[in-house]
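We both want to read discrete structure tokens more fluently, so let's practise on a single case. Would you supply a protein for us yourself, any chain you care to pick? Would you write everything just below, so we can both look at the same thing?
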Amino acid sequence: MARKEIITIDKILDTAFAMTREEGFANVTARKVAARAGCSTQPIFRIYKNMEELWNAVFLKAADFFQDYYNVYPRMGKTPFTNLGMAYIAFARRERHLFELLFASGAGRGKSMYELLNGDGGNVVYEVNLARVAGCADPGGLFMRMWIFIHGAACMTLTGDYDLTDAETRELLERSYEDFSGIHKG
């Protein structure tokens, strides 16, 4: 007699996360997760009290995934906010459904967009400090202006309206920094 496979919390979470990446968060239902994991819905509700609890776990896994993505994204230059912008826009391009969940759905699940972007490593704080050291008089205000630009560009990738290359994007971010900060390279 064949031994029955035990469905673990990792298997359910990994399945729901993979489905979110591929199909979008709205498609993560108990029945679809169960079918893909090769089980009934019973193990899901044995492990998670309800779907809201599973969705929260998927959201947190997506937030960790973004931080890992940001941490390994290649750094290109020293202009404040450029590396952050490049990574964020690339994440929107490459991980559309995760980007939508984290940054475009309004489903913050107790975390603000700033908290998600800043992460445990202080991504935004680091960039603000770079701008301060570079001589920016209002680095917090500069972050807000840059963030509106960066987030807008990333959202445009979701609609197919952003077709700039990485080199063009980097140049645009650097110019925007110069214009918004009033600090121009010599």
